[in-house]
Amino acid sequence: MYQRPRANERETDQETQAMGEDVGEVLSYAVLESFVVFVTDLGKVFAGLITWTAQEQNIPDIIEVPIQTDGSTSVEGSPATDVQGSFHSFAVFKQNGEVLISNEDNLRAHWNTKSDTRAQSDALTFKRIPALQHTGVISVAFGDYHFHALHSNGQISSYGTEPQGCGALGLGGHGDPEGRLRGIRYRGVGGDGQLLAHCYTRGRHVWFEEEKKEWIRFMTSGGHDPEEAKERLRMSTNDTNVQGEVSEWFEQQGNEWDKHPDLAAADEDGLGAYFALSITAAGWHSGALVLVNEDLADKVKQKCVVVDPSAEEDAESHNEEEPETSSGLPPHPPGAVASTIQWVNNWTRWFLGLPTSADSEAGNLPAGQGYNAPFLHDPRLLNTDFTEPTNHGASPGKGLKYVWADDSFPRLRLSNGTEMPGEIPFSQWKYGRPAWDLDVQI
């Protein structure tokens, strides 16, 4: 490995001098499954294929990795400063604040054409994800199918796919409806959850506040008036474009709850309630080391709760007897397994905007469109458990309510000109609707 001469030292020979001029001194490197990728002080990126023998592993040869992207923006002029990666994926950091993503498949294709200089230039391209460009990314951690970026403001953004909806993205997980409002598209029951292309324009950030989970639960339940929001919920579930745009609206509304002017006194260092110091990922897992301002986090929590004047002081607390579910669905009535399956299926059909047993029984469907199965009643109409505020994120407990308990599921004017249906006024974007970059390859 080449090292620059120190102080009054001189190059030992011409070969070493040539190495310094053509390759340079290694600044950082990443060991992948089959390759080592490194960046030198010349701003260049190189890769070497690891050769395995019975006695040792070595790298007999290296090639330069050209930095070009799959987009129209040229980044050739800015030197590379760092490389980070693991397993099959890696990221190259540029001096101008850009972060480019690639993988071993691309490296191998480039390696296989190393004797053809012209072919090399077309063999490897980097993904240029908009949310990673000039946003203060200081480290990237890769799992098998997902990865995270740690930003200089202490936030973590997530990208990729979580196998079987395992929750590795940190945005909801396990196929819960909450994950859909964060921009995850699930492939059937128990299927993979993939972040939509809309989420790569500005990113989707990991939230640590439990109250935000309750807020999302409330909204996935239909907000203040589920009946009025039914068509918007259906659009957000069935149409990927609508889902992506709605998820951006929630992203904007959910960020920076701890930056309210009333909370400034509790945020003396300006780091916020949760400031991530480092991130890690492997396989289907993710982790982070987070600095927590407990005083500020507690004040954020307090700001989310108000007294509910409509609550009956002498009402029995239904929540103390029946546990909440992690998905935000109301607890199902006790009974046989068949009854549980019936309840879940009926609720799922309601969430998707499909006919339910209650619709059929009420005669609200044209002939032939009923759902002829012995399901329990539609929770929207007849399941009294659903009306309990603590079961769907409207209240933290008896006599209290969250500040969003009277809010409606958002109604947006979409980028294609479509106006979401409803009887409420159109919802406003906190930071404006982005100019979506939906051509990013992920």
Can you describe this structure?
This protein is α+β, with helices and mostly antiparallel strands. The chain has a domain at 14-208 and 271-294: Regulator of chromosome condensation 1/beta-lactamase-inhibitor protein II (Methylamine Dehydrogenase, Chain H). The protein contains 11 helices and 19 strands. It has helices at residues 14-22, 104-111, 117-123, 177-181, 199-202, 210-220, 226-238, 240-254, 294-303, 337-351, 357-361; strands at residues 26-31, 35-40, 45-49, 51-52, 57-58, 63-64, 80-86, 89-94, 99-103, 137-142, 146-151, 156-162, 184-186, 193-195, 204-205, 274-282, 285-292, 305-307, 400-402. The strands form 6 sheets. Strands 10, 11, 12, 13, 14 and 15 form a 6-stranded antiparallel β-sheet that branches. The chain has a 4-stranded antiparallel β-sheet with strand order 1-2-3-6. It has a 3-stranded antiparallel β-sheet with strand order 7-8-9. A hairpin with a 4-residue loop joins strand 11 and strand 12 (156-162). Helix 2 runs antiparallel to helix 3 (117-123). Residues 310-324 have a biased composition (Acidic residues). InterPro entries: RCC1/BLIP-II (IPR009091). This is RCC1/BLIP-II protein.
